[in-house]
Fold:
Amino acid sequence: MKKVMQEIMMLVDPELIKIYKAASKKWGDHSQVMMCVEECAELQKELLHMLRHSKNKSMDSLIDELADVQIMIEQMRVVFKITPLEFLTKRADKLRRLKQRLEP
Ligand SMILES: [Mg+2]
Structure:
């Protein structure tokens, strides 16, 4: 239960919500959606790069892109007015299905 509460608190953190709303106000929702697409593409590129050059590569770039995408996902939840409950319910359903598929 503590873990669920931590997840909910992260999704409703007033400081983060304030930042996401300010970004939409400054650049517009359309621009932020485009930015999300761009960040997803950067992560895709980084993941492919990791597969090809993993031995010589530091993790910094991957961590950087993962953080960018996580921020954009949170921002898209705010842009499209998806409530924390809706998001966490869907996420829990998907994790439950994944867990079932892993069971023997
Ligand atoms: Mg990026």
